[in-house]
Amino acid sequence: MTSSIFPLGRQARLAVLASGRGSNLGALIAAFPPGGEDELAAVRLVVSNKAAAPALAKARLAGIPAGHVPWPSRSEFEERLGVLLAGARIDVICLAGFMRLLSPEFTQQWSGRLVNVHPSLLPAFPGLDAHAQALSAGVSETGCSIHLVDEGVDTGPVILQRRVPVLPGDDVESLSARVLEAEHAAYPEALRMLLSGHWTHASERERSQQEVD
Ligand code: GRF
User: Fold this and answer.
1) Cα dihedral sign for 54, 55, 56, 60?
2) Axis crossing angle, helix 130-137 with helix 172-195, rounded to the nearest 10
3) Which of 36, 70, 144, 204 yields a CA-CA distance of 20 to 30 A from 196?
4) 198 vs 7, 8, 15, 193, CA distance in Å?
5) Measured in angstroms, how far is the CA atom of residue 11 from the centroid of ligand 1?
6) Are 45 and 16 in contact (CB under 8 A)?
7) Is 118 an annotated catalytic residue?
8) CB under 8 Å to 81, separation ≥6 — which residues?
């Protein structure tokens, strides 16, 4: 990982990629409004691979340029996405329920500036159906992770995690609703840490090392 470019010394321009309902997008818009009220960042672009994604309607309602980019193939998607990102002079990409895997070339190009939210305490339960995985493992605690994206699936360095209890009688619906609330608070908080330069991969490694020592 290259050394961090943060703090930028100006307001960061965020793009959000979402495939679905966009509740995390809503939390990011509330924290980093397109009107520029927040000094650290503003959401400047929303892209979905699904034309009917409620996330696109949510973005447009907030006055944010929002576009559907089809996915006939990964390379075609990434090429068109690249044009939009460059046009909007995007600094940081936030994946928020984006249900596709980006190429190693793309993740390398955006290394340190591509962030994801995952509904488990990584490295536990990566990939799809994290809540079902947690329930069938019988854990008493799960949560969410905000992490940088690398070439693997949910393997990049974790910026911030929030713990959430698994309660007796929980099903995927009740557990995901509880975790989602934690995601909405954690995602903006993690971005603030990253953008302000208060989190670096090196400092995270040192912290983990100190916990081991
Ligand atoms: C969230 O649970 C997120 O962790 C996962 O996909 C879900 C997206 O939900 N990656 P929403 O579209 O943000 O409401």
Assistant:
1) positive
2) 120
3) 144
4) 8, 12, 21, 5
5) 25
6) yes
7) yes
8) 17, 47, 69
What is d(CA 137, CA 134) in angstroms, rounded to the nearest whole number? 5
Q: How far apart are CA 134 and CA 88, in angstroms?
A: 38
- pTM assigned to the model: 0.95
Residues 111-138 have pLDDT tens digits of: 999 999 999 999 999 999 999 999 999 9
Asked if the model's pLDDT at residue 202 lies above 80, the reply is: no
Q: DSSP letters of 28-65?
A: HHHHS-TT--SSSEEEEEEEES-TT-HHHHHHHHTT--
Q: Are 155 and 123 in contact (CB under 8 A)?
A: yes
Q: Looking at ligand 1, which residue's alpha carbon is closest to its atom 9?
A: 97
Q: How far is the CA of 20 from the centre of ligand 1 (A)?
A: 8
Residue 107 Cβ inside 6 Å of ligand 1? The answer reads no
Report the distance separating Cα 46 and Cα 53, nearest Å. Answer: 11
pLDDT of residue 161: 98
